[in-house]
Amino acid sequence: MPPKRRKATEPSTTPAPKRRSTRASKSTTSDVKSPIPKIDKPKTPKAKPSRPKSGKAVSTSQATQESTNTSNQFTTVSITHSSLKNSILCQMYTPSTPTPSSLALIFTHGAGGTLSAPAVVNFCTGFCTTNPVFGFQGNMNLTARVKGFHALIEHLIQTHENKAGDLVLGGRSMGARAAVMAASEVVSSKSSASNNVLLILVSYPLQGPKDIRDQILLDLPADVSVLFIIGSKDSMCPLELLNGVRQKMKAKSWLLVVKDADHGMHVSSKAAERGLGEMTGRMAAEWVGGRNEETEEKIWWGGVGKEVKRSKWEGAGEDVNGDGENGEEVKTEKKGGRRKR
């Protein structure tokens, strides 16, 4: 009888089949994070400066202090006016010891420049030794720059800054052209409350690309006084050409020549540029205080101590090119002092 086959014994426990792990199998529901909803912050509308509702070209103006320069040289204010689309930035230079009779100057920079241009800063620093300066920032639009003058004039009238009633307007390069145009409009206006208008024109751009910009100067009436401050090497205002225009002008004019200075009032060194620039400002303020009968003077940088030298006021046409240093020399102090004869 054949032997019986034994049954294969099954293992008591069968190992669970191995599962292939994948990236998907590792993720669980606990790993899924619910998106955090975005919370929009409420937008706060920017406050716009209020403007007068009056549609007149000359209306009320507002001044608000924004910041003060650490050098205590000027204060920055914002002026708004009904004739302006935007407020204009103004830097107020105040003398350390102002006097009630000190007339304030409204001044603006050249085309493409700013109030921080060295020629502007140096001039205003010198002028504010005795008189206040309101320098305002503008764009390259000549008409808009003229409106800026009117806004500042209205501000001075309302704040009683021009106690003497006279107006002193000025600028350099394109700003000088705008000052002339604003002065003509003020004089022709019957509502003008000012007695006299004085003009300080630094680096007036008489020679344009295509023509000579003399007509607005010739249109100035006889009761306007004009001070030209021109570099002897200014290609945009040749002195011979300027003196020819001055002879035709109805308004009386004075000329201060800065020897070796170009249109930007640049000279040999920064020290000379600053010294001459500040001296032009001091001499302009001196001119505002009282005009000399003689109409031409010049300044230069030189001497043993390398400082500003100035001649006496002379008659028209003497040393027209400003090349010489002839005439009676007037000694000057290095820092803002009065001249000594």
Largest sheet: 12 strands, mixed
- Rounded mean pLDDT score: 79
Strand order of the largest sheet: 1-2-3-5-4-6-7-8-9-10-11-12
The rounded distance between the terminal residues' Cα atoms is: 157 Å
Over the alpha carbons, how many angstroms does the gyration radius reach?
36 Å
Architecture (CATH level 2) name? 3-Layer(aba) Sandwich
| Poorly predicted parts | 10-14, 22-34, 44-72, 333-341
Strand content: 15-25%
Q: What is the name of the CATH class? A: Alpha Beta
Anisotropy-based shape: globular
Any idea how many domains? 1
Biased composition (Basic residues): 44-54
Organism: Zopfia rhizophila CBS 207.26
Biased composition (Polar residues): 57-74
Region (Disordered): 1-74, 312-341
Description:
The structure is a single chain. The chain has about 350 residues and is α/β, with parallel strands linked by helices. It has a single domain (about 70-330), classed as Alpha/Beta hydrolase fold, catalytic domain (Rossmann fold). It has 7 helices and 12 strands. It has helices at about 25, 120-125, 140-160, 175-190, 215-220, 240-250, 270-290, and strands at about 60-70, 75-80, 90-95, 105-110, 135, 165-170, 195-200, 225-230, 250-260, 295-300, 305-310, 330. A 12-stranded mixed beta sheet has the order 1-2-3-5-4-6-7-8-9-10-11-12, sandwiched between helices. Strand 9, helix 7 (about 270-290) and strand 10 (about 295-300) form a beta-alpha-beta unit. The radius of gyration is 36 Å and the shape is globular. The relative contact order is 0.10. It comes from Zopfia rhizophila CBS 207.26. This is KANL3/Tex30 alpha/beta hydrolase-like domain-containing protein. Pfam families: Abhydrolase_11 (PF20408).
